[in-house]
Specification:
The chain has helices at 10-14, 24-37, 51-63, 77-87, 103-110, 114-129, 147-160, 176-189, 209-218, 240-249, 251-254, 265-276, 297-305, 333-342, 349-365, 371-385, 427-439, 483-505; strands at residues 2-3, 5-8, 41-45, 68-74, 93-100, 135-140, 164-169, 197-202, 223-226, 256-257, 390-397, 405-411, 417-423, 444-452, 461-469, 472-480. The protein is α/β, with parallel strands linked by helices. The chain has 4 domains: 2-276, TIM Barrel, CATH 3.20.20; 292-319, no CATH class; 323-383; 387-505, Double Stranded RNA Binding Domain. Strands 2-3-4-5-6-7-8-9 form an 8-stranded parallel barrel, surrounded by 8 helices. The structure holds 3-methyl-2-oxobutanoic acid and zinc ion (ZN).
């Protein structure tokens, strides 16, 4: 079987999703998990785009040794040099040079002629190649580029030293048969192309990113560019988990494989969702909450008799644990440790002790503690570790008679206990106003969402809030069985991110 290279761009194109920005620590955490997942290439960022991006690509290049670390660059000298500066410490560095190739982009965006673009490609691929011999080239908007010109630009890139040629369907415009035809024609019309790796990069504007990618694989592409949970610009990118599981589940059809450890898929999906604040829709293939749930009697009966009747994949192959053991208030440290290990968490003693205390508190309020509750507890503990301000106590009075009132006690960065109170139009508004009186950072609340983690009246409520300051969005999350407490935690989490970013910029 031939191998398909998995190129993950969650940290670059995924982060370009509106509201999806991540901080340095979060990017490193995801990069480490991608390495564990067995991703071949991690596109860690776009180094020239901001000092923060440069720093995170550099750190990932230094810390993550098992995958190729790729930095993105437009076709200009400063971009290429900056990308190299960021990735040069990697065990396996790659520079990814891209330039627009469609007439639509050339005319309205770049304002350059086709000849000028060919020259830029020649010079910038060669410049990148002078730094390292792993060079990827992408003609942006390839699927809307005139084919003859596309073959020409690809040929120039090959002659200048590119080793991977990536064909982006930048605006998600292609239809599978058409995209497969384009790949076939590229193979037939570009000399020496079969000596290189041909890749594709599909966006999901028409919901066809995965279908287009798989068709390109069928026509000979051996690298797929994708993101965890399919996050990315606009409607997103092709989803890694769907592509990998299609190739694995239908190996009879594709006769191909990948090096992905599929048992890490679920954990990676949860981590990316948790960090970006983008929930995974319940019916999402592979990683959605309903992906392996059977509701109708006929289906349930079939699965009990023989899972293969209605299950084409074993949930364990994507790392969804089989929860035979129910945790509750009588469960001890050993049982929790085992369940955490099954869920893919190996916590240090100190972290484990905090999670265990939170688990015991929760088990006092809730009869059965589900896996999703445990994941939420771990995430909550991890959020607490990187705090600037800490929410110690919150007290609310509300109802349909009086004015909603909140009082809060918080610990400041220098360890002082600070208390304040505020009135609001509702309990959440009052809580946020009381917190604002202490933290004092101007911002606008742009999104506020509550969802319950599991079913039942005693479920943990998880709150996501996004705030904006100086045109940058910060996402905060908080979880608690009390939704007002969860809301206050989420708001403090978002403020802490804002403060940490501002401090760094200073
Ligand atoms: O969608 C696109 O064309 C891209 C390129 C930078 C590869 O993201
Ligand atoms: Zn893209």
């Amino acid at each position: 079987m031939g191998k398909v290279i998995i190129f993950d761009t969650t940290l670059r194109d995924g982060e370009q999703a509106a509201g999806g920005s991540m901080n340095l620590g979060e990017k490193l955490e995801i990069a480490r998990q991608l390495e564990k997942l067995g991703v071949d290439v991690i596109e860690a960022g776009f180094p020239i785009s901001s000092p923060g991006d440069f720093e995170s690509v550099k750190l990932i290049a230094q810390e993550v040794r098992g995958s190729i670390i790729c930095g993105l660059a437009r076709a200009n000298p400063d971009d290429v040099d900056r990308a190299w500066e960021a990735i040069k410490d990697a065990a396996h560095p790659r520079i990814h040079v891209f330039v627009s190739s469609s007439d639509i982009h050339l005319m309205h965006g770049m304002k350059k002629t086709r000849e000028e673009i060919l020259q830029l490609t020649r010079d910038m691929v060669a410049r990148a190649r002078s730094y390292t011999d792993d060079i990827e080239f992408s003609p942006m908007d390839a699927s809307r580029t005139e084919p003859a010109y596309l073959y020409q630009i690809l040929q120039v890139a090959i002659e200048a030293g590119a080793t991977t040629l990536n064909i982006p369907d930048t605006v998600g415009y292609s239809i599978p048969e058409e995209f497969g035809g384009l790949i076939e024609n590229i193979y037939q019309n570009v000399p020496r192309i079969s000596e290189l790796i041909v890749s594709m990069h599909c966006h999901n504007d028409l919901g066809l990113a995965v279908a287009n990618s798989l068709e390109a694989v069928r026509k000979g592409c051996r690298q797929v560019e994708c993101t965890i949970n399919g996050i990315g610009e606009r409607a997103g990118n092709a989803s890694l988990e769907e592509i990998v599981m299609a190739i694995k589940t239908r190996s009879d059809f594709f006769n191909l494989n990948t090096d992905i450890d599929t048992r890490q898929i679920y954990k990676t999906s949860r981590m990316v969702s948790e960090i970006t604040g983008f929930s995974v829709q319940p019916n999402k293939a592979i990683v959605g909450a309903n992906a392996f749930r059977h509701e109708s009697g006929i289906h349930q009966d079939g699965v009990i008799k023989m899972p293969i009747t209605f299950e084409i994949m074993d949930p364990k192959t994507v790392g969804i644990p089989s929860s035979s053991l129910v945790l509750g208030k009588l469960s001890g440290r050993h049982a929790l440790r085992e369940r955490l290990a099954e869920l893919g968490y190996g916590l240090e003693d100190e972290d484990f002790n905090r999670v265990f205390r939170a688990f015991k508190d929760l088990a006092d309020k809730k009869k059965e503690v589900a896996d999703r509750d445990i994941e939420s507890l771990v995430a909550e503990e991890q959020r607490t570790v990187s705090e600037v301000y800490h929410l110690d106590r919150i007290q609310i009075s509300c109802g349909d008679r009086g004015i909603p009132t909140a009082s809060v006690i918080m610990t400041s960065p220098d360890g002082q206990a600070l208390a304040d109170a505020a009135l609001g139009s509702g309990p959440v508004d009052a809580a946020f106003k009381a917190i604002d009186k202490i933290v004092k950072v101007p911002n606008t609340l742009t999104e506020f969402n509550i969802k319950s983690i599991t079913e039942g009246i005693d479920a943990i409520g998880e709150v996501l809030c996004r705030i904006e300051s100086d045109s940058v969005t910060y996402t905060g999350r908080g979880a608690d069985t009390d939704i007002i407490v969860a809301s206050a935690k989420a708001y403090v989490n978002a403020l802490n991110r804002l403060l940490a970013t501002k401090k760094k910029a200073e």
